[in-house]
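Table 4 source record.
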Amino acid sequence: MEIQLLSFNCIAFLLFISFIINLLVKGWKKSNSLDKHKILPPSPWKLPFIGHLHHMIGPLPHRSLRNLAKNYRPIMHLKLGEVYTIVISSRQIAKDVPTTHDLAIADRPESIWMKILWYDYTDIAFSPYNDYWRQMRKVCIVELLSNKNVRSFSYIRLGETSRLMKSIQSSSGELINLTTNLFSFTSSFITRAVFGEL
C-alpha cells in the first residue's frame, strides 16, 4: 500500500513540475513575442512573469531607476509584472510628452477587476479616455468644481484648517503624528462638504 501511495505522489509531483515548466515556457514565449510586435524603447533584461521587477529590489527603488537610467536614458521601457511602463528620465522630454502625446498617455490601463468593481467603467476615475469620460469631466467641472461651488466650501476649509493647526501646536515639545492629523483633516473636510454639519 505504501509503495502505491509513494508512486502516486511521485507521479503527481512530476505532473505538477511539468505543468509549472510548461507555464514558464509559454509565458516566456508569449512575452517575447509581444515585445517584438510593439515598438518599445530599450530595456534591461527581464524575467518571465515578473518582467523587470527584479531590477527594483532594494529599499530605495528610485535609486534603482536612477542606475538603470544611466544605461538606458533618456527613455527606457520596463515591464513591471504584466504592465508595460515607459520611464522618462529627461526633464525636457517629460515636459514635452504631455503636450505632444497627450492622447497616447490619457488612457488608463484596463483590468477585469476594475471593470467589475466600477460597473463597466461608468465612473470617472477608471473610465477609459472616450466620449463618455469627456462628458463626465464636463459635468464634474460645471457642477462640482465651478468657482461658485469651490467658494461655497471656503468656511469648511477655514474651519478644518484652523482645527488642524490647533491639533499640531505643541507647547511642551511632544511628538505629533502628522499622518493621523492629515487623514483626520481630509476625512472631516470631505464629510462636511458632502453631508454638511454633523
